Amino acid sequence: MNSTRPDISIIVPVFNRSTIVTDTLDSIAAQTERPLALIIVDNNSTDDSLAVVTKWAVRHESPDFSVTVLSETTPGAPAARNKGFESVTTPYVMFFDSDDIMSPNHVKDFADTFRADPQLDIAGRDIVSIELDGTKKIHRFADRDMMFRHAFNAILSTQRYAVKSSFLREAGSWNPGALAWNDFELGFRLLVKHPKCKKIDDTVSVTMRRLSESITGTSYSDTPLKWEHSLDLVADTLSNAGYPDDAIELRRVVLAAIYSREGSPEGKRLLGEVMARQKSASRRALYSVAYHYTRKGGRGIHILLRPFMNFF
Predict the structure, then answer these.
(1) Among 260, 251, 248, 193, which Cα is nearest to 221's?
(2) Strand pairing of 197-199 and 92-95?
(3) Averaged pLDDT, groups of 10, the chain, 312 residues long
(4) 58/103 Cα distance (integer angstroms)
(5) Pick from 50, 173, 240, 259: most CB atoms within 10 A?
(6) Is-contact 274 249, C-beta < 8 A?
(7) What pLDDT score does 2 carry?
(8) What is the reported pLDDT for 218?
């Protein structure tokens, strides 16, 4: 690789984050990896986010830190990420959200991992989130049993990995039609292509901040079609690759239980749709157990049912 040109680009979509986006950008500017390319994409912000990031870019761009500011009019982070990806010329790319923070060695650790093994398609690492109540939660990356782990733990969430640019292009990049769980949907399109993956180590170098004004919302039942559409897209991806749909059907059952726990009739509606597709009484019984267990607050139903179901 050419040491005078960046090995990795970071793409940050921005929507109405004028008061906090500079915290994220400052953490990127503090990276020890140089040279480095940053692409910021404003996604129709109605506040002064575009002006804020443009001013920040002018102050921070340097010969070894290129900063590009773009705009994307199609709503949604996937479209904004694709807009930024169109400008990527580096062999590797990392996507980052506009309200999260990375530690100074974060990008260098990823770049060094790729440089050590040019055959790698994906490198990943655990992250930590600060929840709305202030508690911290670790979200694991894994380079083993990845289909199962992604189906139920979303190990390829946006902040947990970086990817070879050519591999992402082959997989089709982001789907602008997936307005919720878009990283979950993309993750399966990457995984069915059997990437070579590596977990860097157990260090946590990204802090994800949960916000009450989350773009995708904090209630699932308020916008049920968004979540279910992404599950349908994943089911199609798996079917086309020759995988069974058991994992996605169980995800639908879990989602139905969450709807019901939120007090929405959408739960019974979605559960009824899943049950109507089942030809086996034993499978209906398993899904009924999963629904009631999850509705009552139970966790890890996928682990409990794994011995009885053909996930992958």
Answers:
(1) 260
(2) unpaired
(3) 80 97 98 98 97 98 97 97 98 97 98 98 97 94 97 97 98 96 98 98 94 68 96 98 96 98 98 97 97 97 95 92
(4) 23
(5) 259
(6) yes
(7) 46
(8) 67
pLDDT at 215: 52
Edge-to-edge order in the sheet of strand 136-139: 101-102, 206-209, 127-130, 136-139
CA distance 8 to 2: 12
Q: Residue 18 carries which side chain, given as an amino acid letter?
A: S
How far apart (Å, rounded) are the C-alpha atoms in residues 38 and 25?
9
Instruction: Tell me: cis bond preceding 35? Omega within 30 of 0 counts.
Output: yes
Sign of torsion over alpha carbons 132, 136, 137, 141 = positive
Q: Give the count of beta carbons closer than 10 Å to the beta carbon of residue 231.
A: 21
CB atoms near residue 30 (< 10 Å): 13
pLDDT of residue 44: 95
Phi, psi of 86 (to 5 degrees): -60, -25
Q: What is the model's pTM?
A: 0.94
Helix locations, the chain, DSSP H: 21-29, 49-60, 77-85, 106-116, 146-153, 165-171, 182-191, 224-240, 246-261, 266-277, 281-295, 301-305
- The rounded distance, in Å, linking the Cα atoms of 14 and 45 is 7
Tokens coding 178: 């997936």
| 18 token code pair | 């004028």
